[in-house]
């Protein structure tokens, strides 16, 4: 079977995110009421797995490898069979 | 002394590094990042550039290259490992140095000459400098804001692992070009054999390049331990 994992990688809370600040400034400039913006990354990974349990394990292993624990957190946002 | 300069897809300060090593009277050879062995080399240099186009994060994908296992061995064995700019990013991503390099606070790719203070001169990298000397070195990066958690920062400070800090050249107040915590421009590991720094000493080894303050770093290495 094939699965698609959606992995969200974000800067840890408390780390200043200048990209988010820039986006926030533009949104505010366009008249939107915005409290804060954080910019993260979404990775969609397609891979083979025998079932959901194995797919989850594989996706988590890849997420741990791809996020930098010094400054980032990761979340497995979605996992779906294709 | 013979140096390996690792080339990743996107490295662009490799030639500058070789020029600097040769200018200091050492040998240097290029090694492609898919190699797994570094035989006959005394040290390894990870050059600046944009490995893998800085995709995912600067240095993140290069840090997973096959050659990095061998770089780890060099570090463990106490041999010299130097990462400059993108090379520094690779070393932190590989876990060979603590912390991380984040986007510059001003969000600009910043390319200019800055002041860099030498914090200690008892290591081969800095033995040719005076302690407290402020060097004039070029920087060229978008992700050079040194970040580490408070515990790591106090360990770096307490153990004297901060080798270079941004400092005013002419008394200017706004001398930190990227928002690095503690004005950190370069750090070493506990063994004092792994150096990571954002400024480019290899681009300051001849007057024709605009300055020579980087040359003593290479001359100091030539003298060995």
TrEMBL record, chain A:
<keyword id="KW-0067">ATP-binding</keyword>
<comment type="subunit">
    <text>Part of the FGAM synthase complex composed of 1 PurL, 1 PurQ and 2 PurS subunits.</text>
</comment>
<keyword id="KW-0547">Nucleotide-binding</keyword>
<dbReference type="GO" id="GO:0004642">
    <property type="term" value="F:phosphoribosylformylglycinamidine synthase activity"/>
</dbReference>
<dbReference type="InterPro" id="IPR036604">
    <property type="entry name" value="PurS-like_sf"/>
</dbReference>
<keyword id="KW-0963">Cytoplasm</keyword>
<comment type="similarity">
    <text>Belongs to the PurS family.</text>
</comment>
<comment type="pathway">
    <text>Purine metabolism; IMP biosynthesis via de novo pathway; 5-amino-1-(5-phospho-D-ribosyl)imidazole from N(2)-formyl-N(1)-(5-phospho-D-ribosyl)glycinamide: step 1/2.</text>
</comment>
<keyword id="KW-0658">Purine biosynthesis</keyword>
<keyword id="KW-0436">Ligase</keyword>
<comment type="function">
    <text>Part of the phosphoribosylformylglycinamidine synthase complex involved in the purines biosynthetic pathway. Catalyzes the ATP-dependent conversion of formylglycinamide ribonucleotide (FGAR) and glutamine to yield formylglycinamidine ribonucleotide (FGAM) and glutamate. The FGAM synthase complex is composed of three subunits. PurQ produces an ammonia molecule by converting glutamine to glutamate. PurL transfers the ammonia molecule to FGAR to form FGAM in an ATP-dependent manner.</text>
</comment>
<dbReference type="GO" id="GO:0006189">
    <property type="term" value="P:'de novo' IMP biosynthetic process"/>
</dbReference>
<dbReference type="Pfam" id="PF02700">
    <property type="entry name" value="PurS"/>
</dbReference>
<dbReference type="InterPro" id="IPR003850">
    <property type="entry name" value="PurS"/>
</dbReference>
<dbReference type="GO" id="GO:0005737">
    <property type="term" value="C:cytoplasm"/>
</dbReference>
<protein>
    <recommendedName>
        <fullName>Phosphoribosylformylglycinamidine synthase subunit PurS</fullName>
        <ecNumber>6.3.5.3</ecNumber>
    </recommendedName>
</protein>
<dbReference type="GO" id="GO:0005524">
    <property type="term" value="F:ATP binding"/>
</dbReference>
Automatic annotation (TrEMBL), chain B:
<keyword id="KW-0963">Cytoplasm</keyword>
<protein>
    <recommendedName>
        <fullName>Phosphoribosylformylglycinamidine synthase subunit PurQ</fullName>
        <ecNumber>6.3.5.3</ecNumber>
        <ecNumber>3.5.1.2</ecNumber>
    </recommendedName>
</protein>
<dbReference type="InterPro" id="IPR010075">
    <property type="entry name" value="PRibForGlyAmidine_synth_PurQ"/>
</dbReference>
<feature type="active site" description="Nucleophile">
    <location>
        <position position="85"/>
    </location>
</feature>
<keyword id="KW-0378">Hydrolase</keyword>
<keyword id="KW-0658">Purine biosynthesis</keyword>
<dbReference type="InterPro" id="IPR029062">
    <property type="entry name" value="Class_I_gatase-like"/>
</dbReference>
<dbReference type="GO" id="GO:0005737">
    <property type="term" value="C:cytoplasm"/>
</dbReference>
<comment type="pathway">
    <text>Purine metabolism; IMP biosynthesis via de novo pathway; 5-amino-1-(5-phospho-D-ribosyl)imidazole from N(2)-formyl-N(1)-(5-phospho-D-ribosyl)glycinamide: step 1/2.</text>
</comment>
<keyword id="KW-0547">Nucleotide-binding</keyword>
<comment type="function">
    <text>Part of the phosphoribosylformylglycinamidine synthase complex involved in the purines biosynthetic pathway. Catalyzes the ATP-dependent conversion of formylglycinamide ribonucleotide (FGAR) and glutamine to yield formylglycinamidine ribonucleotide (FGAM) and glutamate. The FGAM synthase complex is composed of three subunits. PurQ produces an ammonia molecule by converting glutamine to glutamate. PurL transfers the ammonia molecule to FGAR to form FGAM in an ATP-dependent manner.</text>
</comment>
<feature type="active site">
    <location>
        <position position="200"/>
    </location>
</feature>
<dbReference type="GO" id="GO:0006189">
    <property type="term" value="P:'de novo' IMP biosynthetic process"/>
</dbReference>
<dbReference type="Pfam" id="PF13507">
    <property type="entry name" value="GATase_5"/>
</dbReference>
<dbReference type="GO" id="GO:0004359">
    <property type="term" value="F:glutaminase activity"/>
</dbReference>
<feature type="active site">
    <location>
        <position position="202"/>
    </location>
</feature>
<comment type="subunit">
    <text>Part of the FGAM synthase complex composed of 1 PurL, 1 PurQ and 2 PurS subunits.</text>
</comment>
<dbReference type="GO" id="GO:0005524">
    <property type="term" value="F:ATP binding"/>
</dbReference>
<keyword id="KW-0315">Glutamine amidotransferase</keyword>
<keyword id="KW-0067">ATP-binding</keyword>
<keyword id="KW-0436">Ligase</keyword>
<dbReference type="GO" id="GO:0004642">
    <property type="term" value="F:phosphoribosylformylglycinamidine synthase activity"/>
</dbReference>
């Amino acid at each position: 079977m094939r699965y698609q994992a959606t992995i969200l990688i974000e800067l840890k809370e408390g780390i200043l995110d200048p990209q988010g600040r820039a986006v926030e400034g533009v949104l505010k400039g366009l008249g939107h009421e915005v409290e804060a913006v954080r910019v993260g990354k979404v990775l969609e990974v397609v891979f083979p797995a025998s079932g959901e349990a194995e797919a989850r394990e594989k996706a988590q292993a890849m997420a741990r490898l791809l996020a930098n624990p010094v400054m980032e957190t990761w979340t497995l946002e979605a996992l779906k069979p294709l | 002394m013979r140096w390996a300069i690792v080339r990743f897809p996107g490295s662009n300060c490799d030639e500058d590094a070789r020029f600097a090593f040769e200018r200091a009277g050492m040998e240097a050879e290029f090694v492609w990042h898919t190699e797994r062995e570094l035989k006959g080399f005394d040290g390894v240099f990870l050059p600046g550039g944009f490995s893998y186009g800085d995709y995912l994060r600067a240095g993140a994908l290069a840090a997973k290259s096959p050659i990095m296992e061998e770089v780890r061995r060099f570090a463990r064995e106490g041999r010299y490992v130097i990462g400059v700019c993108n090379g520094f990013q690779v070393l932190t991503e590989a876990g060979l140095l603590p912390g991380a390099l984040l986007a510059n606070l001003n969000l600009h790719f910043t390319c200019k000459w800055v002041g860099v203070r030498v914090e200690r001169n008892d290591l081969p990298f800095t033995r040719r400098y005076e302690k407290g000397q402020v060097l004039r070195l070029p920087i060229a990066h978008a992700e050079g804001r040194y970040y580490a958690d408070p515990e790591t920062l106090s360990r770096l400070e307490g153990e004297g692992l901060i080798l270079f800090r941004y400092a005013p050249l002419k008394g200017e107040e706004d001398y930190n070009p990227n928002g690095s915590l503690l004005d950190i421009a370069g750090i070493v590991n506990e063994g004092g054999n792994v150096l990571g720094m954002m400024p480019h000493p290899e681009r300051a080894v001849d007057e024709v390049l605009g300055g020579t303050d980087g040359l003593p770093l290479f001359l100091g290495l030539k003298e060995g331990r």
